[in-house]
Amino acid sequence: MDPHFTLEPDAVRVTRVADKSAALRFLSEICAETYGLDAKEVEACLLEREELGSTGFGNGVALPHARMEGISRPIAALVRFEHPIDYDAADGMPVNLACALLSPANAGATHLHALAALSRMMRDEHFREQLAEAPDAEAMYGLVANGQDRNAA
Questions:
Q1: CB under 8 Å to 65, separation ≥6 — which residues?
Q2: Locate the PTS EIIA type-2 domain: which residues (predicted)?
């Protein structure tokens, strides 16, 4: 696993959502269930960051991220949408993968390193294709875990 953030198997899902706000709500609920956080607080933090500008960075990927109180290390949740959604991405393309990142409130450089690690992973076209074609969330988690191990080497 990547030393910059934690991604638990239960935080990887495949789902169908109607739009960007539903996607952020779903990611918030996953973080709440998996890491013992308050879903409404997570969603508020993600929405606050989203107001600064869309976290849809292109190629069908969004990286919603925020810093928040009550966590001790960067944590992540990964979702593949059965049907791509409009996310106001930089390239105008719909999003089919979203990876949320939450870091401790005071984690300046730590947050940036975790975000950079996620960004590097999601910029890899072959890796994105593998995630899109994975049969289920368990297979997606395996790809991320193996990809992170490779990147750490």
A1: 46, 49, 55, 100, 101, 102, 103, 111, 115
A2: 1-147
Residue 126 catalytic?
no
Q: E strands along the chain, which residues?
A: 6-15, 56-58, 61-62, 65-68, 75-85, 95-104
Q: Which residues pair with 68 in a beta bridge?
A: 104
Query: How many DSSP H helices and E strands does the chain contain?
Result: 5, 6
Given 4, 65, 111, 113, which residue is catalytic? 65
Class level of CATH domain 6-146: alpha beta
